[in-house]
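FAQ: What does the model actually see?

It sees only this:
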Amino acid sequence: MFCRAWGYEELTADPRWEYGLPPRMESELAWIQHALSHLKPGGTAVVLMPPAVAGRRSGRRIRAQLIRRGALSAVITLPLGSIPNMAVALTLWVLRRPQDSGTPGHVLMVDTSDRPEDFARVAADAWERFEAGADADEPGVELLDDDVDLTPARYLAPPPADLSPERVTGQRNRVADLLRRTAELVPAVGKVVSGVVFPL
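And it is asked to produce this:
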């Protein structure tokens, strides 16, 4: 998603790396720190990230520092297809420039991957509750373990299956529509026998 040739050799002493020198193959963590460096204390930035950044071993020290110093406010998993032309479900990292140094912050974890029809509302509602002081996960034992894996699904209980008649009917109708459209896209198929095509 991000360019791997991001200038690692030329920028090793850059003052933007407050949370650690980004590893050569972790350009995303360079962009995270670049965004933070442009914020005033208390300012917020939202960065679209590939999901692998949340758990790559090479970036765990920087992820830990982002949590310990209160610079990471939320990680929100988006549904597959919410961003056009992307083959993976991306995540939003909500960053906030700490007002003071060394103050661990709460981290909101949201997974909207199973809510493609209303993911934006689900994420916005979760953020509003978080800002009001609810739904905060402590940056303690779980987030700051050896991996510092920031994948929301790792910390959230799976939602209960919605088997309401309306949802089942809606899913059935979507599948039936998909099958109908697929049939319209497939040309008439013939049966080949001894080199001669016979219509089915």
